What we know:
- The chain is about 35% helix and about 20% strand.
- With about 200 residues, it is α+β, with helices and mostly antiparallel strands.
- It has a six-stranded antiparallel β-sheet with strand order 2-1-3-4-5-6.
- A hairpin with a 4-residue loop joins strand 4 (about 145-155) and strand 5 (about 160-165).
- The longest helix has 17 residues, at about 15-30.
- The chain starts with 15 loop residues before the first helix and ends with a helix.
- Residues about 1-15 have low confidence and may be disordered.
Amino acid sequence: MNEPDPTTSTAPPIPPSSSLWRTVAEIERYVAGDGWGAPLRLFALVRTADALDRDPQLAQRLPEHVVAEARADTGHLTSVEQDGLPDVADLDELLGQLAWPAGVDGAALVVERLLVPPDAEAEVRAATPADDEEARAAALAAHPLAEDVRIAVGVLRDGSHECAVRSRSKDSDGEVATGADLVPGLVSALQATLQD
């Protein structure tokens, strides 16, 4: 009896969204390795097989297993961290300045935020002056139900998107929440950076 050849596969390729999910999870774990209190991190996403076609020398710079995965799965993504981000006051301002060249298939970002339940936020808003954002931010940060979270979002030009959210109180890889629609506002804002 002949053994199947491990270099050929009859299994269907992984759908692009699965590749995106895996990439977002990898990016979140990579950033988590630097601990809490990190600045926003931004990544370009490129389909690895297409990048290898454009630049065959890339195969020598990537790990062998990545090249093999890209040859087996045309949806395989490589993330490229973006350095030298502009110094802006808030995330919306940064995203409003971003545009990606045609060779970039998607984008991902990782940002830390402080979350409080909606009723706790309403309670703080009622107890602080409307024009004192500093006091409100301090009160929200001090609220007993406040939770530090790290949010990773990835989007592709075809509209696919995935999210991963890690809370500081459950800071382990097994406790990361994942799903396409965990932070729809951030997904939409990042998707807008890919519009022509």
